[in-house]
């Protein structure tokens, strides 16, 4: 695993922020904010997308137990449809930061777009979840909490295989939309079905 940077600037309290679920057709976008202690290290810690489900699930309790502070927040599909996915992703990160009991001095944001959080500076870092430990930790919490939510709602809507695809636009997910229609959790502002010429049913 690559060596992740512990901070952007030494001596200040930094919270890493990341989200999960931007590209999904259903469910919320979920964000996390994590403040790690000085010297935090775990050999598996990395961008959540580069880890297996088993590795992410093993890291989640470690991060939640050892972090100085952490929080997870979501913006649901109806809000996403109203304000668009970029604004929803930023709002979810703001909500996560707002839940922190420890006010950070600075935010490290995964990606290149953010709206300033009141009275806290920020730095956007492209592919930051593979560069900074706190952003990597946030990516893991956002992903594992969102996956848990999608597995829960899968029980209510089993046709869509959300416990496997987590709401992402897989062929089988789109086939289920074509066959069964949409649920109250689908993002209606997204292109849920491709053109008929592109549609492949399994």
TrEMBL record:
Annotated GO biological process: DNA replication, removal of RNA primer; mismatch repair
Gene Ontology molecular functions: manganese ion binding; RNA binding; RNA-DNA hybrid ribonuclease activity
Cofactor: binding details: Manganese or magnesium. Binds 1 divalent metal ion per monomer in the absence of substrate. May bind a second metal ion after substrate binding.
Residue ranges crossing the lipid bilayer per the database entry: none
The enzyme's E.C. designation: 3.1.26.4
Annotated keywords: Cytoplasm, Endonuclease, Hydrolase, Manganese, Metal-binding, Nuclease
UniProt: a divalent metal cation binding residues: 18-19, 110
Cofactor: Mn(2+); Mg(2+)
Annotated InterPro entries: RNase_HII, RNase_HII/HIII, RNase_HII/HIII_dom, RNaseH-like_sf, RNaseH_sf
Reactions mediated catalytically: Endonucleolytic cleavage to 5'-phosphomonoester
Subcellular location: Cytoplasm
Chief localisation class: cytoplasm
SUPFAM superfamilies for the chain: Ribonuclease H-like (SSF53098)
GO cellular component: cytoplasm; ribonuclease H2 complex
Domain RNase H type-2 positions: 12-202
HAMAP family: RNase_HII_B
Record-stated family: Belongs to the RNase HII family.
Protein function: Endonuclease that specifically degrades the RNA of RNA-DNA hybrids.
Name recorded for this polypeptide: Ribonuclease HII
Origin species: Breznakibacter xylanolyticus
């Amino acid at each position: 695993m690559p060596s992740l940077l512990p901070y952007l600037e030494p001596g200040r309290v930094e919270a890493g922020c990341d989200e999960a679920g931007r590209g999904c057709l259903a469910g919320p976008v979920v964000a996390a904010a994590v403040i790690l202690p000085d010297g935090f290290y775990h050999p598996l810690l990395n961008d959540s997308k580069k880890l297996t489900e088993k590795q992410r699930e093993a890291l989640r309790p470690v991060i939640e137990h050892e972090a100085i502070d952490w929080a997870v927040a979501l913006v649901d599909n109806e809000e996403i449809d109203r304000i668009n996915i970029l604004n929803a992703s930023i709002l979810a990160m703001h909500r996560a930061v707002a839940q922190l009991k420890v006010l950070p001095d600075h935010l490290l944001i995964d990606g290149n777009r953010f709206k300033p959080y009141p009275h806290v500076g920020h730095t956007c870092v492209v592919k930051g979840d593979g560069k900074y430990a706190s952003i990597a930790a946030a990516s893991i919490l956002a992903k594992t909490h969102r996956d848990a939510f999608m597995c829960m709602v899968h029980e209510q809507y089993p046709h869509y295989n959300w416990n496997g695809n987590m709401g992402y636009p897989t062929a089988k997910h789109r086939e289920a939309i074509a066959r069964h229609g949409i649920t109250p959790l689908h993002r209606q502002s997204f292109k849920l079905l491709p053109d008929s010429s592109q549609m492949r049913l399994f």
